Amino acid sequence: MGFIRNVAGVLATSVAAVPISIATSILLARCLSVPDRGFYALLTTFSAVVFLLTQLGWAEAAIYRTRRHGVSPARAFSTGMVANTAITLAVLALCLAFRDPLSRSFLGEVSARAFVLAALTAPLLALGDFVRGVARAIDRFDLHNQFGFLQAAGILGALVIALPGLGGGLDAALAANLVVQALLVAGFGVRIAALAGVEPRFDPREAGASLAYGSNLYLQNLCIHLHERVDVFLLAALGVSALDIGLYAAAVSVVSPLRLVPGALGTALLPRLAGAGDAEAAEFTASVARQSTLFMVAAALALVPAGILGIPLLFGVDYSAAVTPFLWLLPGMAALALSRVLSRYFAAVHRQRALLALRAAALAANVLLNLALIPRFGIVGAALASLASYGAEALAVAGLFLLDSGQSAGQAFVVRASDLGPYRAQLRRLFDRGRS
After folding, report:
1. Is residue 192 within 8 Å of residue 143, measured between CB atoms?
2. Which member of 101, 155, 347, 387 has the greatest number of CB atoms within 10 A?
């Protein structure tokens, strides 16, 4: 397995998905009213949170069990697919049973149809995440990447048909998302089953071992993603209008592509670290963290003028107020990269409890900051809360990494000449190519 090959593939897919993501955001802004854009953000975030509550770390467990413990891919796939299907259907039933209190508390005045469409999407997100995890476990990053690209491109294509094509509204946009997720899970599920193999039985021991590993990682992922998404729910719970939530969603959509970089690195990093010794894993993680943070800072600086000019131009003048929260969210993305990459070290060496406590504290801090700042500053307060909590989390994870790995801050985080070597070589090749 080539780590550089896998990172390159995941990054290339992520980079290709950036313009698609931006085009999707522009399409939603142009075809939905600002309040409906806010409801779309609320409902897709609701789907993502329900997915997070149900996935229980199965994708990472499949990687860990097959890579470090030699479990057959067929057993990991079959057991995980049965367990995930049962869990997601049970949670879907609970969502439908408690639709009224969930809507009143977190989603505002959304229609019953819109709620059901969002709830039905959540199980498909969980199954898709597991299928992509098994693809990485068997070193088929090409399938993992294809899934991600087709997910972004498919949603954009479906929205083009549903919104400007058929003149649909919020419900049509949610239905388009649902159809794309269903087709991807069905198509890639069959392909991965053919590659990994299928065992005609459910293995309780394997399920227990997967849950034992995945539970700590699951709780961390839950804290991470709630940290990134809870602000949208708190805006609604604190009475912020759907119009302002739509503005905030636009700001988030412009900075969100930056999350693809640490996400791509983490995706390729876990399989690489799972087969390494602790010292090697620490050194390799620090190297990747240095380079990714350097890249994120440069990318955030480059996005400043692009966002100031581009948001009103591309989304429309009604979205001009999204520029200020956008600017406050940008530096938080650079901090996010450091903590997300370093966290893969703890997953690989299976020492996650301290990191879990830290993640929970960061989430709690984010909630408290939102509760304090949103009533006073609105959507700008939500952006400030994210910046403060992301920065604090990054510093804390870095400190924990130093304690666990035994490295000094200079060893781990000071950029070295060797870190810049690949970039200089690439620039030299481009320069030589231009001269020829």
Report:
1. yes
2. 347
* Residues 6 or more apart whose Cβ sits within 8 Å of residue 4: none
Tell me the per-residue pLDDT of 79-128, one tens digit each, with 9 for 90 and over.
888 988 998 899 899 999 998 888 877 777 788 899 999 999 999 999 99
Per-domain residue ranges of the chain: 3-414
- Look up residue 399 and give its two tokens: 């400190």
Nearest Cα residue to 259 out of 1, 3, 17: 17
CB atoms within 10 A of CB 155: 22
Burial 263-290 (b: 16+ CB within 10 A, else e): bbbbbbbbbbbbebeeeebbbbbbebbb
Name the helix (H) or strand (E) containing 157.
helix 141-160
Smallest CA-to-CA distance from 124 within 89, 170, 76, 95 is with 89
Using CA atoms of 132, 136, 139, 142 in order, give the dihedral in degrees to the nearest 10: 50
Q: pTM, whole model, 2 decimals?
A: 0.69
**DSSP label at residue 343:** H
The structure tokens listed for 384 are: 């400030």
Residue type, 201: R
3-state DSSP of 155-221? HHHHHHHHHHHCCCCHHHHHHHHHHHHHHHHHHHHHHHHHHHCCCCCCCHHHHHHHHHHHHHHHHHH
